[in-house]
């Protein structure tokens, strides 16, 4: 570049989002806000920064997350950032300066336009860089921009120790890494001294302990790591069963009274819990499974066959272990390396922790994601031109970052600079499809997703080819020109095979084919700047920064969400994509209002007034009353995989009733459909997590009770009683009572267990979204959970009756003529409906008939004898739609409906329940993630 003039070689940048002469900051209204984060356990303040400056269009949640996560400098000092302008300027101006220095722009004017466009897009949440960029760029810290790392290890103690060290350095910075251990000799092979080798599974213990220690040492998030073993390694069976056997240990220790919840004091005694495990299978192995043949396990010292096993039997063990504990996942080596642009340099052997970044060993990838909802026009069309230009800006900025970035090791520095791997992706796909009136699990939905993905990657590689003409191709391109061009042609051919459904998909598909053809024409002449361009990451924290309803490639989690309010507090609202979808489907405003109100009350669309049955699938979500089937998720992954350089971070949820055979079919279909990796999660398959309660655990608890005397005699340990939550069945007896207390009206719905006993209470007062409705929802959840954990109803009745506050006074209930408050009325009514006469007599609560009979008996001088109570309260099952599940957030909705959230960890930063995001977890409270995005 030294011999070029910038005007001749640099990029000419055109305005897309901005207006000449107007700075992006001057186009928005700004306001000051206070960010105060409290501890969910005791209400104490764990973060406070007042007077931060954000645009009015940014939500409170996005404000809180950016302030707590990305503002640099000690709180309370002059160096502390306090405005979004400072944050964006710190990053964007660093990119512009580096772009100038390394010859990316044709003129100062082009550099300024680039700066303004990037600023506008970040300010308006059109895209976001991955978290390390916000953490580090423009600060005195090392300019670490990558979230994903792949390491390597050889068959020597020195290399293994280097692995531990390098992994620790990456974890310390809050990023994640993956590694393939298949070069380490098997436990059945000999050492040079004549002894037997330890094997890779043994060395995993040390790495696992290291990750756990660094995690508890206060990193910005939990250590995220992936451990991979090839299917032909002699220790593969031990590797497959490793975490399943540890799960058995967790069950045994829990049943003996130890604290085995995630984060519990005893869970650290269990090994291999800090990594995701995956088995790397070859096409040869999968064909052997298909044909029922034998498969050779190969020694690492001399390449000789150590054993021959039945391929189907090994595949069954893989599925069995995943069924038991969700590990290991599966990676398809043949597909991965068939789409490898740099095969002349070496094979792809591993991935990052979330399985979206797959490339050479000792490399890294920095990520950025586009917010797809920003490109959905009011008329339902997709903003193709602006999308193309936005991809150009983002991929250019990402490539510039490699020029100035710092990396944790020398090998990673050299390889990343030589191959320049990038990972552009997107978020809000699920919201885009729903808002467009397209079901996620449909041919139409998959066609739009495939077209957008093809357009994104095609444009990214086209811009990469143009960059090669300006600043040169990546250093490793000359060696890998043939495989790189071959893979580009494969992508282009796949784009030509998209079968668009509808005008929107047709328009996007047409432009995608154009971008691939143009990019390949340029690239074949002057090469490409980047060996890799795109991945689909979980987009956890940055998804919240962009106010996205859905993360990565995921569908909507639920139709209701939790919205934080200015000044504190929160409210439950229906996702804004729902009314937009209804309008796109042709519903009138009156119908939209009625359906949205129904969803607010019930949490789903089943039996919503006026909603056509053919439109129900548009509102299917990851969880809830109408959950998308596991194969629906896999088919979406298969539709977009041919247009991604890397892979897709996603875990496919399966119901608890799923069988081992179902897991086998899922893993086999993933290979058949051309995926690069697949992970499944069966509800309630893990027990070492909070709130993980199910039928199998109840049986385990019964078994523990049977052997408790023996255990007590052999082990001097007091087995502590722990209450077990007894959940109500899907269909349960219930009754609804309308009531008036003073001038307040409301509805009380009480549901009981079929075998007797109150188990659930719902209170409906005031309009949905009001403070009173929110308080009543929260109160209902608290009481219901307490009842299900065994708190006696009479305890609540004793606490809440006679409580005095407004509204109070006359009621319309003949059994309770006057109430001191709504609480007083509610618990008197519950006592009358669900407590025996003897229990109520102790509390002084009687029906009108009972009081009349008591008075008559007193006048007659006889003893009042209450009528014999029936064996069970006779309740009719309501034929009307059940009342709304009182949930406070999408995570609580998830927990209420299915078991995935019940097995989600608590956030290590703020303690809030996390929710799935791709194959990782993200906290809705503070934005922390368990992964690497």
Describe this structure in words.
By secondary structure, the protein is α/β, with parallel strands linked by helices. Among the domains are: 1-124, no CATH class; 559-620, no CATH class; 734-860, no CATH class. 41% of the residues lie in helices and 14% in strands. It has 29 helices and 23 strands. Strands 3, 4, 5, 6, 7, 10, 11, 12, 15 and 16 form a ten-stranded mixed sheet that branches. It has a three-stranded antiparallel sheet with strand order 17-18-19. A two-stranded antiparallel sheet has the order 1-2. Strand 20 (809-813) and strand 21 form a beta hairpin. Helix 3 (84-101) runs antiparallel to helix 4. The radius of gyration is 30 Å and the shape is globular. The two termini are 33 Å apart.
What keywords describe this structure?
single chain; ten-stranded mixed β-sheet; three-stranded antiparallel β-sheet
Quote the beta fraction: 5-15%
Basic shape: globular
- Helix/strand/pairing category: alpha/beta
Cα-to-Cα separation, first versus last residue: 33 Å
Number of helices: 29
Computed CA radius of gyration, to the nearest angstrom: 30 Å
**Average pLDDT for all residues:** 86
Number of DSSP-assigned strands: 23
**Helix content class:** 40-55%
Question: Biggest sheet, in brief?
Answer: 10 strands, mixed
Sequence stretches where pLDDT stays below 50 over 5 or more residues:
1-8, 216-221, 688-720, 870-889, 897-902
């Amino acid at each position: 570049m030294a011999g070029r003039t910038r005007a001749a070689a640099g990029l000419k940048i055109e305005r897309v989002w901005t207006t000449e002469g107007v700075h992006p900051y001057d186009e928005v209204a700004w306001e000051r806000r206070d960010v105060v984060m409290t501890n969910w356990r005791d209400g104490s303040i764990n973060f406070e920064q007042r007077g931060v400056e954000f645009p009015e269009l940014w939500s409170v949640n996005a404000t809180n997350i950016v302030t707590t996560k990305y503002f640099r400098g000690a709180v309370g000092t002059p160096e502390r950032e306090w405005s979004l302008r400072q944050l964006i300027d710190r990053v964007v101006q660093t990119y512009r300066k580096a772009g100038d220095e390394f010859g990316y722009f044709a003129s100062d004017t082009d550099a300024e336009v680039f700066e303004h466009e990037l600023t506008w897009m970040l300010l308006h949440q059109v895209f976001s860089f991955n978290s390390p960029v916000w953490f580090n760029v423009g600060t005195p810290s090392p300019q670490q921009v990558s979230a994903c790392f792949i390491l390597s290890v050889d068959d020597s103690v020195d290399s293994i120790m280097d692995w531990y060290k390098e992994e620790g350095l990456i974890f310390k910075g809050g990023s994640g890494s993956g590694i393939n251990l298949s070069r380490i000799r098997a436990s059945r092979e000999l050492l040079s001294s004549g002894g037997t080798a330890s094997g890779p599974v043994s060395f995993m213990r040390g790495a696992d302990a290291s990750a756990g220690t660094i995690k508890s040492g206060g990193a910005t998030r939990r250590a995220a790591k992936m451990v991979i073993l090839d299917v032909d390694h002699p220790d593969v069976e031990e590797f497959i069963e490793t975490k399943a056997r540890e799960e058995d240990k967790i069950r045994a220790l829990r049943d003996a009274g130890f604290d085995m919840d995630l984060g519990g004091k005893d869970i650290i005694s269990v090994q291999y819990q800090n990594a995701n495990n995956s088995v790397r299978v070859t096409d040869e192995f999968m064909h052997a499974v298909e044909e029922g043949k034998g498969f050779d396990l190969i020694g690492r010292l001399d390449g000789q066959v150590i054993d021959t096993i039945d391929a189907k039997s090994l595949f069954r063990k893989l599925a069995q272990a995943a069924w038991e504990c969700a590990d290991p996942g599966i990676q398809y080596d043949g597909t991965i390396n068939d789409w490898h642009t740099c095969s002349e340099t070496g094979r792809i052997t591993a991935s990052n922790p979330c399985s979206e970044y797959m490339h050479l060993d000792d490399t890294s990838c920095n990520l950025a994601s586009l917010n797809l909802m920003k490109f959905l026009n009011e008329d339902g069309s997709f903003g193709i031109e602006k999308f193309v230009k936005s991809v150009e800006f983002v991929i250019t900025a990402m490539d510039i970052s490699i020029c100035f970035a710092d990396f944790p090791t020398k090998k990673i520095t050299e390889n990343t600079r030589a191959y320049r791997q990038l990972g552009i992706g997107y978020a809000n796909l699920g919201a885009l499809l729903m808002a467009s009136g397209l079901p996620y699990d449909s041919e139409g939905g998959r066609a739009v997703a495939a077209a957008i993905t093809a357009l994104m990657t095609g444009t990214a590689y086209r811009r990469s080819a143009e960059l090669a003409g300006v600043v040169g191709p990546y250093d490793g391109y000359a060696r890998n020109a043939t495989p790189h061009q071959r893979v580009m042609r494969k992508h282009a051919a796949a784009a030509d095979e998209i079968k668009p459904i509808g005008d929107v998909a047709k328009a996007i598909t047409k432009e995608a084919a154009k971008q691939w053809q143009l990019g390949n024409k340029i690239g074949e002449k002057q090469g490409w700047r980047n060996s890799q361009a795109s991945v689909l990451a979980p987009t956890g924290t940055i998804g919240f920064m962009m106010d996205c309803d859905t993360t990565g490639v995921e569908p909507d989690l639920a139709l209701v969400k939790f919205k934080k309010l200015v000044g504190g507090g929160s409210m439950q609202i229906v996702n804004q994509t729902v009314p937009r979808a209804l309008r796109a489907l042709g519903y009138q405003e009156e119908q939209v209002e009625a359906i949205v109100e129904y969803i607010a009350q019930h949490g789903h669309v089943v039996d919503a007034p006026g909603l056509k049955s053919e439109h129900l699938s548009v509102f299917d979500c990851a969880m809830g009353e109408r959950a998308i089937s596991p194969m629906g998720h896999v088919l979406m992954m298969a539709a977009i995989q041919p247009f991604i350089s890397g892979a897709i971070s996603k875990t496919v949820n399966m119901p608890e009733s799923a069988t081992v055979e179902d897991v086998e079919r899922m893993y086999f279909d993933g290979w058949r459909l051309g995926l690069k990796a697949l992970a499944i999660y069966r509800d309630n398959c893990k027990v070492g997590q909070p709130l993980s309660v199910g039928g199998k655990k109840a049986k385990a608890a019964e078994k523990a009770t049977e052997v408790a005397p023996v255990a007590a005699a052999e082990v001097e340990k007091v087995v502590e009683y722990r209450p077990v939550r007894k959940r109500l069945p899907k269909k349960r007896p219930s009754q609804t009572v309308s009531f008036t207390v003073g001038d307040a009206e409301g509805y009380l719905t009480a549901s009981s267990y079929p075998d007797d006993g109150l188990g659930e209470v719902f209170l409906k007062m005031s309009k949905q979204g009001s403070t009173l409705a929110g308080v009543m929802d929260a109160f209902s959840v608290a009481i219901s959970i307490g009842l299900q954990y065994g708190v006696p109803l009479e305890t609540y009745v004793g606490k809440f009756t006679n409580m005095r506050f407004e509204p109070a006074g006359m009621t319309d209930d003949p059994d309770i003529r006057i109430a001191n408050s709504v609480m007083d009325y509610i618990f008197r009514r519950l006592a009358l409906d669900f407590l025996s006469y003897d229990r109520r007599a102790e509390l002084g609560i009687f029906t009108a008939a009972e009081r009349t009979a008591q008075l008559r008996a007193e006048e007659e001088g006889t003893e009042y004898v209450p009528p014999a109570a029936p064996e069970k309260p006779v309740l009719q099952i309501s034929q009307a739609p059940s009342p709304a599940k009182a949930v406070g957030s999408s995570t609580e909705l998830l927990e209420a409906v299915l078991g995935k959230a019940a097995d989600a960890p608590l956030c290590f930063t703020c303690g809030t329940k996390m929710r799935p995001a791709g194959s990782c977890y993200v906290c809705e409270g503070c934005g922390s993630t368990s992964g690497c995005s």
